């Protein structure tokens, strides 16, 4: 094997026999001829194009070896691998004693140069509207190609653009040769019609790595200590290197331990590492010593992104002869909202031979004075039986966001150890408590959508504090980002800081526009926010963090959402949105499609998916849309949202002058359900010598679907933690299956002689999203530790409740504990709360005398009722005061000495519709709905929302949706709400929509009865009944206007009918944009029946797309293969009316809407031969408006069963003039003594010109299901000429359908 340009040798040698056996004549010689032939045709490898000869020799007994030197030509031609075949033969006289073996060899030659093939340019730019991009691949250099081909595989791959969504993926083999040196590849670009931009996604996930635990203890005589470092929060996809290193404390490296500094690498599979530190073993008598271990980030990219916490661990080398007392935890953390932190001090090593007293103290750890905690000094006594003690420190909360965490310190000081102080070590004797600020501060744009004239000077953007308050300044950067508008061309870019503090919560940033004359469409740029203050990053919420500014061209009409965002409470039931013409004028009607889509709210679960066409013109510039909000009645504590978008459907050729902006908006659904969690009961009593007390916390109102965590904590009163009870602070989680929790608080059993003591138990919300959404009430419970030597008198019940209508409340006061050695007098008194004495209850003051025989006394308080509904509960209080106990007052305790009485308003207020059924003419202007107070009277205002909901009538098409508030009070008990109807010419059946009610006033929800809460409105159509068949005999015929020359017009006065074949589709209507096919049924009960059981419509919508509609014999409808009841898109409308009829309206090529009805019925059938009668399902097809009978169509005029019909021209008035060349006609159908009329329009060739009417359709014959030229089959051609092969086939002999539809259904 050789390479082009390389020298190589071909050697021939005499290998046997040995010289002494050589039989060739002595001193003679011979020559060898080498023939060189290229094995690859047409290539030059040795400088010649044909076979080459070479002579090697002479060979004799003295010269037995010769080599021929050749060169492989370097021709810089890419040929691939080639081979040469060399054949050796004796040159000259033949010698039978001489054998040449082997006599052939092969030389493989490899190209010495490479060919360079690549893209002719490295960067391509294309807009979505270009629809494709062309890549050019070419031979750029290196070798040329001759006699071979080179294949290169071209393939696309995703970047930020995605195959299928943004472009069509392409893989193609490119073949180059000496004539093909450049090839183009076309890749299709997809355009979804939306404006896109680049979005930088910042990784705000939190990765926390730290020590766990942070306190280690090692024996002074041990070998080593193992330190654990782990991922404490988050997960990672890329490796992060962390350095672990030691630092001296009282223990020093080289003397007490071996210093270390090593790296550990964390990744997705390695989230936990152990670092071993060697100790220096020695005999010591000094106290325990401490050194620390620290962490640092090594990976450069991760610095500042990875949180190291805890970043320090402490190692204590302990002397086992010493008792160690210290903080059980190295550090503590508490959220402001928790209210307190529980710390534990314990005997960590050794034993105690005598009691040891340690003083616990808190102190400030920074240089600033701060009142965020309650300083506590207490003495803690430890002994061998008491080895751990808790300490509760109260955390104070001013309710203001500070964005920084603060901390205070706590220390231990040895007070006494009865002479053994030298054997006591306090370690750790100090700790820190971090107070985390969990208040929410939200800063954002308000509003988020701005509009500015292209010829204006500037636009003012507002940024404000939307939630929370702050005590320290926060700097926010406001910056612009290009969209379709670019800085320097359309506006002046800005990036500036605004500072928020307690006195400055609102800022305006002005952005200069570049004034110019433009003729292009409106443009958009955005304004964003970022947090500058380092300490506030990750603590301040920026939302909304983006505002959009549209620079509008005043020559362009702008349609969009009137409001940028919407908000609705679940209980409202619906949200009303407004779309309007925001700028410019409309020269022609513009159709826009409104559609909702899921966000965090789910269609069907949280709201009703809504798609509606909206038609604007110069007189209709605003249209409301009502979207129904669904409510499952369950508290979720989080708000959810869904989106709504606008899509331009048609503007009659002026689409380039229409801009949709804003074309999207969000609707926030606020969960306004009430969830109340509290103590029940709120008063507890425990014996001073008891073990514990069980406290109950439960859901008192509402239900929940998501977990809520509640913290239960104790607070000292006259009873103190550590002396009378063990403090607790623990979490309980409520969810749908867990609505009741019991928290047990341990009591400290002791012999006491003092009076009873009390402490309290409180609640706080832990789940961040639930804060401010969950009501804690009652949020405090009181626990009394009673001394059994003391007599206790108090209210038997902690709280009382009474309904207004009851007239009075009975309360009981009794001797709750102990005995009385002498009479005791207690005064009972009431006092006002939200209830007023004299107005809501009778002020009552009574003396109550107790002794050993009278231990309980009732008190009756009168409740007053003004008979008026107030929808709120009120309360008053009652208290006990000790008057006399004959010198034993110190042994009498009043507990509980106070209570509340809630007065519930049980009056009934009923508000509802009266009447509940309304009827309006389709050509009327409006309908007035009445809502009134039907029962009761009220003293406080109540707001009620009145809203519409679609039925068979739809908002935007049949009526204008409304959602408005009406307020009832003592002087206003009746309201009328007017709903506008949309006036139009219709021929379909009557339609219905409903009107509903919901309570808006939060306090009145659940207290006001809405009944009747729904009213129904029927919009009466022009056509009340479209049924056209009352005959007992069925004969489905259809007329086919034929395409003939003008001299044959009189022939069109005949009526033509087709009798169908079993299971075969026939075409009924066909023109350039609509085709209707019908399938005829097989025999039923052995009888051939000429009835239709399936009708299909293929139409072309206003977007130029084919739409396939199929209706079965039960009036079940499928559009594009999917089952529907209502379909509305691009002016194709389908609506079902139960299982009896279907109305289909499609755009037709006569510039009208072609309106068709399909009726599904069970009808009696008669066999014309035997007279046998039976029932069968069948379909009837009727065209009521918009049929074209011109030269480019054929089709059915009307299809009836045994019904005569006539046509007369309509000369009356109409709201919409017919298209030029068409006219309105009245089709009159008579059957069974009844007459029905339909107003229809026929385009161009009218029935009068046809010499008609041509509408007589059958005379009571059922007919056989046969084809062929029967006597009454007088159509143009044979019946088979109208047969189509499948449901949506449009290709047959007389087809007029010219659209190209793909195989798949739309």
What does this 3D model show about the protein?
The chain is an all-beta fold and 1306 residues long. Helices cover 0% and strands 48% of the residues. The strands form 22 sheets. A 7-stranded antiparallel beta sheet has the order 83-82-81-80-79-78-93, with no helix packed on it. Strands 1-8-7-3-4 form a 5-stranded mixed beta sheet, with no helix packed on it.
Topology record:
Blueprint lengths: L1 E2 L3 E7 L16 E9 L13 E8 L5 E7 L5 E2 L3 E10 L12 E7 L4 E5 L12 E11 L1 E2 L4 E6 L15 E6 L5 E7 L18 E5 L3 E5 L4 E10 L6 E8 L13 E6 L5 E7 L10 E9 L8 E3 L3 E7 L4 E5 L3 E5 L4 E10 L6 E9 L12 E6 L5 E7 L11 E11 L7 E3 L3 E7 L5 E4 L3 E5 L4 E10 L6 E8 L13 E6 L5 E7 L10 E9 L9 E2 L3 E7 L4 E5 L3 E5 L4 E10 L6 E9 L12 E6 L5 E7 L11 E11 L7 E3 L3 E7 L4 E5 L3 E5 L4 E10 L6 E8 L13 E6 L5 E7 L10 E9 L8 E3 L3 E7 L4 E5 L3 E5 L4 E10 L6 E9 L12 E6 L5 E7 L11 E11 L7 E3 L3 E7 L5 E4 L3 E5 L4 E10 L6 E8 L13 E6 L5 E7 L10 E9 L9 E2 L3 E7 L44 E6 L3 E7 L11 E9 ...
Parallel strand pairs: 1-8, 6-11, 15-22, 16-23, 24-31, 25-32, 33-40, 34-41, 42-49, 43-50, 51-58, 52-59, 60-67, 61-68, 69-76, 70-77, 89-92
Antiparallel strand pairs: 2-5, 3-4, 3-7, 7-8, 9-10, 10-14, 12-13, 15-17, 17-20, 18-19, 18-21, 21-23, 24-26, 26-29, 27-28, 27-30, 30-32, 33-35, 35-38, 36-37, 36-39, 39-41, 42-44, 44-47, 45-46, 45-48, 48-50, 51-53, 53-56, 54-55, 54-57, 57-59, 60-62, 62-65, 63-64, 63-66, 66-68, 69-71, 71-74, 72-73, ...
């Amino acid at each position: 094997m050789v390479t082009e340009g390389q020298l190589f040798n071909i050697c021939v040698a005499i290998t046997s026999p040995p010289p002494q056996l050589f039989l060739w004549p002595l001193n003679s010689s011979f020559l060898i001829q080498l023939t060189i032939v290229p094995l690859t045709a047409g290539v030059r490898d040795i400088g010649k194009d044909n076979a080459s000869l070479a002579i090697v020799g002479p060979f004799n007994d003295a010269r037995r070896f010769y080599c021929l030197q050749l060169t492989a030509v370097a021709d810089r031609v890419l040929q691939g691998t080639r081979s040469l075949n060399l054949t050796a033969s004796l040159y000259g006289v033949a010698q039978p004693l001489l054998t040449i073996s082997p006599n052939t060899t092969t030389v493989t030659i490899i190209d010495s140069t490479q060919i360079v093939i690549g893209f002719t340019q490295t960067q391509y730019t294309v807009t979505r509207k270009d629809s494709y991009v062309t890549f050019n691949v070419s031979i750029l250099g290196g070798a040329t190609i001759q006699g071979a081909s080179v294949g290169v595989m071209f393939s696309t791959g995703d970047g930020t653009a995605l195959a299928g969504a943004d472009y069509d993926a392409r893989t193609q083999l490119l073949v180059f040769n000496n004539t093909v040196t450049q090839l183009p590849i076309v890749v299709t670009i997809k355009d979804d019609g939306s404006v896109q931009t680049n979005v930088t996604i910042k990784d705000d996930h939190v990765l926390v790595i730290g020590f766990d635990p942070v306190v280690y203890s090692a024996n002074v005589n041990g070998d080593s200590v193992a330190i654990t470092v782990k991922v404490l929060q988050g997960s990672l996809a890329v490796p992060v290197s962390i350095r672990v290193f030691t630092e001296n404390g009282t223990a020093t490296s080289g003397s007490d331990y071996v210093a270390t500094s090593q790296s550990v690498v964390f990744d997705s599979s390695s989230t936990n590492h152990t670092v071993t530190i060697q100790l220096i073993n020695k005999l010591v008598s000094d106290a325990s010593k401490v050194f620390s271990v620290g962490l640092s980030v090594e990976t450069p990219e991760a610095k500042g992104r990875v949180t190291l916490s805890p970043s320090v661990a402490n190692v204590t080398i302990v002397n086992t002869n010493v008792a160690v007392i210290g903080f059980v935890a190295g550090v503590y953390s508490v959220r402001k909202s928790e209210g307190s932190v529980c710390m534990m001090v314990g005997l960590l090593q050794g034993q105690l031979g005598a009691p040891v007293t340690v003083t616990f103290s808190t102190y400030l750890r920074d240089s600033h004075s701060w009142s965020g905690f309650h300083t506590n000094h207490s003495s803690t006594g430890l002994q061998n039986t008491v080895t751990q003690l808790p300490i509760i420190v109260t955390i104070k909360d001013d309710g203001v966001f500070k964005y920084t965490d603060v901390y205070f310190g706590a220390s231990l000081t040895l007070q006494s150890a009865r002479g053994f102080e030298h054997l006591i070590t306090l370690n750790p004797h100090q700790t820190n408590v971090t107070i985390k600020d969990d208040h929410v501060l939200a800063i954002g744009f308000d509003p988020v959508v701005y509009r500015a004239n292209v010829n204006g000077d500037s636009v003012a953007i507002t940024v404000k504090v939307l939630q929370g308050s702050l005590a320290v300044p926060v700097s926010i950067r406001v910056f612009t980002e290009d969209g379709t508008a670019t800085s320097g061309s359309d506006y002046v870019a800005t990036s500036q800081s605004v500072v928020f503090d307690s006195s400055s919560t609102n800022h305006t940033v002005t952005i200069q526009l570049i004034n110019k004359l433009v003729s292009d469409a409106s443009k958009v740029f955005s304004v964003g926010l970022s947090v500058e203050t380092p300490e506030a990053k990750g603590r301040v919420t920026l939302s909304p963090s983006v505002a959009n500014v549209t620079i509008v061209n005043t020559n362009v009409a702008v349609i969009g959402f009137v409001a940028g965002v919407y908000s609705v409470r679940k209980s409202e039931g619906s949200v009303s949105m407004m779309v309007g013409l925001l700028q410019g004028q409309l020269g022609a009607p513009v159709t826009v499609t409104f559609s909702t889509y899921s966000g965090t709210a789910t269609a069907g679960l949280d709201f009703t998916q809504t798609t509606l066409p909206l038609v604007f013109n110069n007189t209709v510039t605003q249209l409301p849309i009502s979207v129904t909000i669904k409510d499952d009645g369950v508290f979720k504590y989080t708000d959810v949202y869904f989106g709504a978008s606008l899509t331009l459907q048609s503007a009659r050729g002026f689409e380039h002058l229409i801009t949709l902006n804003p074309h999207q908006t969000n609707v926030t659904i606020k969960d306004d359900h009430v969830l109340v969690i509290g103590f029940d009961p709120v008063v507890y009593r425990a014996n001073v010598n008891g073990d514990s007390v069980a406290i109950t916390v439960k859901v008192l109102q509402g239900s929940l679907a998501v977990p809520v965590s509640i913290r239960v904590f104790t607070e000292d009163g006259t009873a103190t933690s550590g002396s009378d009870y063990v403090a607790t602070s623990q979490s309980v989680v409520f969810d749908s299956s867990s609505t009741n929790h019991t928290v047990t608080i341990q009591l400290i059993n002791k012999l006491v002689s003092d009076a009873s003591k009390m402490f309290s138990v409180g609640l706080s919300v832990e789940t961040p999203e639930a804060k401010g959404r969950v009501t804690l009430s009652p949020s405090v419970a009181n626990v009394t530790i009673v001394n059994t030597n003391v007599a206790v008198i108090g209210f038997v019940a902690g709280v009382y409740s009474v309904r207004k209508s009851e007239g009075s409340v009975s309360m009981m006061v009794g001797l709750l504990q102990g005995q009385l050695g002498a009479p005791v007098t207690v005064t009972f008194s009431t006092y006002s709360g939200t209830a007023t004495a004299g107005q809501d209850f009778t002020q009552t003051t009574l003396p109550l005398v107790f002794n050993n025989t009278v231990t309980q006394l009732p008190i009756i308080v009168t409740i007053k009722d003004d008979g008026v509904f107030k929808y709120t509960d009120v309360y008053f209080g009652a208290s006990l005061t000790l008057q006399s106990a004959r010198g034993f007052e110190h042994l009498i305790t009043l507990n509980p000495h106070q209570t509340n009485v809630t007065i519930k308003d049980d009056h009934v207020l009923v508000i509802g519709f009266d009447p509940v059924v309304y009827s309006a003419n389709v050509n009327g202007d409006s309908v007035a709905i009445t809502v009134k107070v039907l029962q009761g009277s009220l003293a406080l205002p109540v707001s009620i929302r009145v809203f519409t909901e679609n039925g068979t009538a739809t908002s935007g098409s049949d009526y204008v949706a409304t959602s408005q508030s009406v307020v009832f009070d003592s002087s206003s008990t009746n309201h009328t709400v007017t709903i506008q109807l949309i006036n139009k010419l219709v021929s379909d059946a009557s339609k219905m929509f409903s009107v509903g009610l919901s309570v808006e006033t939060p306090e009145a929800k659940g207290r006001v009865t809405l009944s009747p809460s729904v009213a129904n409105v029927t919009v009466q159509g022009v056509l009340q009944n479209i049924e056209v068949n009352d005959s007992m005999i069925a004969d489905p015929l259809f007329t086919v206007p034929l395409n003939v020359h003008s001299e044959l017009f009189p022939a069109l006065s005949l009526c033509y009918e087709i009798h169908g074949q079993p299971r075969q589709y026939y075409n009924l209507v066909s023109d350039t944009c609509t085709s209707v096919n019908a399938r005829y049924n097989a025999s039923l009960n052995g009888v051939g029946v000429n009835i239709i059981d399936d009708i299909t419509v293929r139409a072309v919508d206003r977007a130029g797309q084919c739409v396939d509609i199929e209706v079965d014999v039960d009036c079940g409808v499928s559009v594009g293969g999917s089952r529907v009841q209502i379909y509305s898109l691009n002016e194709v409308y389908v609506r079902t009316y139960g299982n009896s009829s279907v109305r289909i309206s499609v755009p037709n090529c006569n510039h009208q809407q072609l309106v068709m009805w399909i009726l599904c019925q069970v009808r009696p059938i008669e066999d014309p031969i035997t007279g046998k009668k039976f029932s069968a399902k069948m379909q009837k097809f009727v065209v009521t408006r918009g049929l074209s009978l011109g030269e480019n169509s054929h089709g059915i005029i009307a299809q009836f069963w045994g019904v005569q019909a006539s046509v007369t021209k309509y000369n009356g008035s109409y709201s919409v003039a017919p298209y030029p060349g068409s006219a309105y006609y009245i089709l009159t159908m008579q059957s069974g003594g009844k007459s029905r009329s339909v107003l229809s329009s026929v385009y161009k060739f009218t029935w009068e010109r046809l010499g008609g009417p041509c509408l007589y359709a059958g005379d009571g014959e059922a007919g056989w299901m046969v084809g062929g030229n029967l006597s009454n089959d007088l159509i143009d051609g044979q019946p088979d000429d109208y047969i189509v092969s499948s449901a949506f086939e449009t290709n047959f002999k007389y087809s007029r359908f010219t659209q190209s539809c793909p195989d798949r259904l739309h």
